[in-house]
Design a protein that fits this description.
heterodimer; A: about 190 residues; seven-stranded antiparallel beta sheet; 2 helices; globular; B: about 180 residues; mainly alpha; Arc Repressor Mutant, subunit A; 9 helices; 3 strands; WH_DNA-bd_sf (chain B); DUF7342 (chain B); Transcriptional regulator (chain B); ArsR-like_HTH (chain B)
């Protein structure tokens, strides 16, 4: 495992901001209410769940925990990714108006025009896990990256990746393609 | 899964996406997941559907109450209708859960919120964020902010559950079968 928890298995979103508790900034420069931000995140995650259900590798997908849509979880058919593991799962988080950790900025973002944070993270029963994440990370420049490790006791390896898509649903399909390609190359 | 299609100059993920969905599906999905109002041209590019066809789909979605429109310096923009968004979230709850299930979920969320209040001695997610100061560890700060976000999601879910439970009979009413 690496340190500081920035490079985890997709279960958390960095939300620290130098001005704790401030509201997300709107595209028009105003400040969005918490309620609007929560509704937007809920709506985007529901759209992502719908799209996951169209993907040939996804067996089922649901809002988590208990249908709340704080994030998405999915059962995956590992054979569709060229793996012979018994089972696999996917976690998807999406933060449309992220609070960024101190000393980090959207100005540091590279290889995408997305302003959101996200994690699209695949885990196998064998212990292997990998994902495409867009968030500040001390191990890679430009926020957008791919990370993988062979088992929970190993450290992650990180690589820069690029995205063409900007809409969340397109990003989902593109990220799943990146994950599939990386797994097949491994 | 990396194969590109012969004769098509598009990324493999686009080919896979097109194989699994219709153009209307993609336009609806892209427009339903917008973070800000966008033009038909932007949505067409992201959905990989021609702009004239995208405009037709978008107008159909406006007629159905899925999207609302606005005029901006960029031209006509589209954004998800907030009423439709809320009602479809409630519809999903009602379709996938019994009234008892919904009540149990609401009870569980209440319990989560009470446990957060007790654990951090605060009354709201905003208060929890405000408790993050320089004299606590980075790990504790991340944990508090993560819980604040979950707390807000839980409150929103609770508002949907209350609506679904209060109107469960109305939302699940079906006309009697004809003889």
């Amino acid at each position: 495992m690496t340190d500081a928890g920035e490079d985890d298995d997709g279960s958390e979103q960095p939300t620290v901001d130098s001005e704790f508790g401030r509201q997300p900034q709107r595209p028009d420069g105003g400040w969005e209410s918490t309620q609007e931000a929560v509704e937007k995140r809920h709506r985007i995650l529901r759209s992502l769940r719908e799209q996951l259900e169209h993907h040939p590798a996804i067996v089922s997908a649901w809002g988590s925990p208990d249908g709340q849509y704080a994030e998405i979880e999915a059962d995956v058919d590992p054979a569709q990714f060229g793996c012979d593991g018994e089972s696999a799962s996917l976690r998807v988080t999406w933060q449309p108006d992220p609070h960024l950790p101190p000393e980090t900025s959207l100005d540091d973002r590279r290889r995408t025009s997305l302003m959101s944070n996200f994690k699209i993270h695949y885990s196998e029963s064998s212990g292997f896990d990998c994902g495409v994440h867009l968030e500040p990370n001390p191990h890679v420049d430009g926020h957008l990256h791919y990370q993988e490790r062979a088992s929970p006791t190993d450290e992650y390896d990180y690589d820069e990746v690029s995205l063409v898509a900007t809409a969340p649903v397109g990003v989902l399909w593109e990220a799943l393609e990146i994950i599939a390609n990386r797994i097949q190359q491994a | 899964m990396a194969d590109s299609r012969d004769g098509e100059d598009e990324p493999a993920y686009v080919s896979r996406w097109k194989d699994a969905t219709t153009g209307f599906d993609r336009v609806r999905s892209v427009s339903s997941s917008l973070s800000e109002p966008r033009t038909a041209g932007w949505i067409a590019d992201e959905a990989h559907v021609s702009e004239p066809t995208t405009r037709n789909h978008l107008e159909r979605l406006v007629d159905l109450g899925v999207l609302v429109t606005d005029e901006s310096a960029r031209g006509k923009t589209y954004y998800p209708d907030p009423v439709y968004t809320r009602l479809t979230a409630i519809q999903e709850l009602v379709a996938e859960n019994s009234e008892v299930d919904l009540t149990q979920q609401a009870t569980a969320i209440h319990a989560d919120i009470e446990s957060w209040k007790a654990a951090y001695d605060v009354e709201s997610p905003r208060s929890l964020r405000a408790s993050v100061t320089d004299d606590i560890s980075v790990e504790d700060a991340q944990q508090r902010l993560h819980i604040a976000a979950d707390w807000e999601s839980a409150q929103y879910q609770l508002s949907l559950l209350r609506d679904a439970i209060e109107h469960y009979e109305t939302y699940t009413a079906r006309p009697p079968a004809s003889a």
